[in-house]
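Notes from hallway chat w/ T.B., transcribed later so I don't forget. T.B. wanted the structure written out for a chain they're using in a teaching module, and asked if we could keep both sequence and structure tokens in one place. Agreed to drop them here.
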Amino acid sequence: MAHAAPAPHLPSTCAGPVPMRPQGGYSVGSLRQVSRRAALTTGLLGLGGLGLGDLLRLRDAQGGETGKPTGTGKTTGHDDTAVIFVWLPGGPPHLETYDMKPDAPAEVRGAFRPIRTNVAGIDVCELLPLHARCADRYSIIRSVTHDFADHGGGHKRFLTGRAPKEPTGFVNDFPMAGSFVSRFRPAGVAGIPGYTALVDAGRQHVDTFSFGAAYLGTSHTPYIVDGDPSTPQFQVPSLSLEERMERRLSDRAGLSASLDRLRREVDAGTSMRAKDDFDARALDMLTSPAAREAFDLSRESNSVRDRYGRHRFGQRALLARRLVEAGSTFVTVVMEHPGGEMPSNCCYNWDSHAVNCHIFDDAKWRMPFYDQAVTALVEDLYARGLDRRVLLVVTGEFGRTPRLENQIGTQTKVHQPGRDHWPGAQSILVSGGGLTMGQVVGSTDARGGYPKDRPLSPNDVWATVYRHLGIDKELAVPDLGGRPMPILPSGEPISELLG
């Protein structure tokens, strides 16, 4: 399958630099570029309050919070459930992870062999030995398929549950699923962010991974925490205020009075109500000891931190567990570069074209970090009694081509194997959520190209997630034009997982 050139937001060459932090703030004209941190920086931290110009600029950029949901659906009372969503940008190779084809020709099966797990009938790649020990605590979905082979289109198609209007680029026309969760299932603990994304430094732009909230408004984009939590220097900027700023923010009554004065200067439109809600939640988090404690990995024992791995993948996964345990509802863990020095024939993320990396050498480098982090999270959720309350989903935007390619690597300058984008089939790991574990759902053909049985779409995965959270997928929210838009236009909870 021919593939489109990687979008600039998603580095795909092994030596390509991580994009630098945006300079000068975000454009007023782009709703989806106003992140929580940007709003916090230009707003609450600017005064002991907000400037009128900031309020008006955000109002112009946001375009307004939409009205109340319509339709026959409703949100039920699953108030303690949560989701950890591990996102693998670039597209992990299903033939090198969870859907191996040892009997296929060499140009399909690749260099690795499957190994047995502790569940009969479930095999995984030999590079995932820790997965083999706990297969009874996860299930693999092998038959998810869609039609968008570009990174941008694949991100938007998977993350929103809708075919994007533009098959490239990362700006959402529709809300990312986490934004719907933010709208209908906010955190139940004051000061704890309900919807968080944990990303690499320089990857905090809301459009880097199509995390935009579209017509739900900027208050339903994730609170983005960038950086490497495995380093001693890691800080959550909004929770690491200077002492003088903490004193200015400690007087809630004074800050509320300042905001009230500003509100009297503008009309009480729906966009302002959304901004007020954003400010209230941001202030709660800034002054909340619960948030500081949830983000403080030093409270974990060395043995637990070592079990997850002292690298970006592992400590980010551990941080996600701490957040859902503290009351967060939806935490996205982005796993791109595991940290440390990257070999020259490897790739920053999971985009394993031959021009980007030697796919087998990249897998040998990357998989031990991934194997350790994911299995530690799976086992920890069960050990702490969170396996019914918390649902873990691990996926990328698509799989990789069944047939290997060989091209000259951009960095290595030698011929090397790789795989292109492939939305025809991908494998997804799920764990917990009170679902039935220790099984494989669906299968692909002999080459791993397309579903052989039980074809599923990303929408079926999201329908399962919404069911776990008690959010009725038939709920409809007006878009910016006032048209009622259901949370999901199609998709059903995956019956095999429901037991």
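Follow-up for T.B.: The first strand starts at residue 82 and ends at 87. Might be a good example for the class.
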